[in-house]
Design a protein that fits this description.
Helix content: 25-40%
Number of strands: 11
Shape: globular
Strand order of the largest sheet: 3-2-1-6-4-5
Radius of gyration: 21 Å
CATH topology of one domain: D-amino Acid Aminotransferase, Chain A, domain 1
Distance between the termini: 34 Å
Length: 378
């Protein structure tokens, strides 16, 4: 391995170790791993990856959940080694554009998109239009969601009601909003979610996150979790204050949900719903849909799906993620009983991150550069 690559790898790992240790400091309850637990972790991982892994994540999740397991996936290992081997990262960059969802997966039920903006250009029904045409065609679409298409964690996502070219009670004009967002965003129909999903938090679209792993013609569900918004919040991401808990195989929820690191376990939603045993509607349908659709993604063997359930009980895809965040507080070890198999499979493949222009795609400046490069070729 070249010295430059070793330095990059070291900085990459240190970045994520620093992040998890900052989160650990915020936990209300703290524990330290015993020497025996440290040894067990390395005995599990060294044969799989060929070196010792940082145990900071094992300590964090053990302290947060009270569950010790050698199978927790360190984020540094996940980002540096696993995602680049299970997925072809050069393809992940352009496919990360949410404006391509209806093109990449046309047979999957998705919210209707009224307007796309790609690199500053507007499209209605995938036909190029001017700014004034965009305003005219979207001036009375009613309840919608506007969201950036190249960012994550719910950044920039807003609920709007567009009527007569006005988007809010302050009298903001639609044209001014479009100019403010600049480029790379969309305006999409606001899904009317199932009553049972809305009851968890009526202010947000509460989504199912399903992480799937493809091995040949078999698609395996590694885990499923539900993400629930807080009172008064339009999005359900943990980074925006939302909470999440595991969905069992029978579609029921577990007892505890987790939010920000500084918060303790949560047993009730803000609307007063008890989580344990609560039934997620159409969960089996959602699982069947994502397993079927994953077969249409030949360059991604690990995918995170964000699914909502509409008022008729249909699974609706909001987005899919090529390098999904892992919800290990809520669900435990992300790969569960499949950990050894998935890691061994990944490590048997070449790493598409190494020696590739997307090597540092997680850094904003590199990410933006690669996005411009790939979109310029489409």
């Amino acid at each position: 391995m070249r010295i430059k690559t070793k330095i990059q790898n070291g900085l990459f790992v240190e970045k994520y170790i620093k992040q998890i240790n900052e989160s650990y400091k915020k936990l209300p309850h703290k524990v330290e791993l015993t020497k025996e637990q440290e040894r067990e972790i390395q005995d599990f991982y060294v044969p799989l990856v060929g070196y010792k892994v940082p145990t900071d994540w094992h300590r964090y999740f053990y302290a947060r959940t009270g569950l010790f397991s050698v199978k927790y996936i360190p984020t540094s290992l996940y980002r540096l080694e696993l995602t680049g081997r299970l997925n072809q990262l050069p393809w992940c960059v352009p496919f990360s554009d949410k404006n391509l969802n209806d093109i990449v997966l046309p047979s999957m039920k998705q919210p209707h998109t009224y307007l796309k903006n790609r690199n500053g250009y507007f499209y209605v029904e995938n036909k190029a239009v001017s700014l004034d045409e965009a305003v005219s065609k979207c001036g009375n679409v009613g309840d919608v969601i506007v969201k950036p298409t190249l960012s994550s964690h719910g950044n920039g996502v807003k609920k709007l009601h567009i009527q007569n070219g006005i988007v809010d009670d302050k009298g903001t004009k639609l044209k001014d909003l479009l100019v403010k967002y600049g480029k790379d965003f969309l305006i999409q129909d606001l899904v009317k979610q199932h009553q049972a999903m809305s009851a968890l938090n009526p202010d947000s679209i509460n989504t199912i996150r399903i992480v799937t792993y493809r091995k040949g013609m078999e698609v395996i569900v590694l885990y499923a979790a539900i993400r629930i918004g807080r009172k008064g919040q339009a999005i359900d991401n943990e980074s925006a204050g939302g909470i999440s808990t595991k969905i069992n195989l029978d579609g029921t929820l577990c007892k505890w949900a987790y939010g920000a690191p500084g918060q303790d376990k949560i047993e009730l939603t803000d609307s007063g719903i008890k989580l344990e045993g609560y039934i997620v509607p159409s969960f089996e349908k959602a699982v069947d849909v994502v397993k079927e659709q994953h077969l249409n993604l030949p360059f991604q063997d690990l995918v995170g799906w964000d699914i909502c359930i509409d008022d008729e009980g249909n699974p609706v895809m909001l987005e899919w993620n090529t390098t999904p965040e892992l919800s290990q507080s809520a669900v435990g070890p992300a790969f569960g009983d499949y950990t050894e198999m998935v890691v061994k499979d990944a490590m048997s493949r070449p790493n598409s991150r190494v020696g590739n222009p997307t090597y540092r795609m997680l850094e904003p400046v590199y990410f933006k550069t690669m996005v411009k490069f790939f979109f310029g070729k489409l």
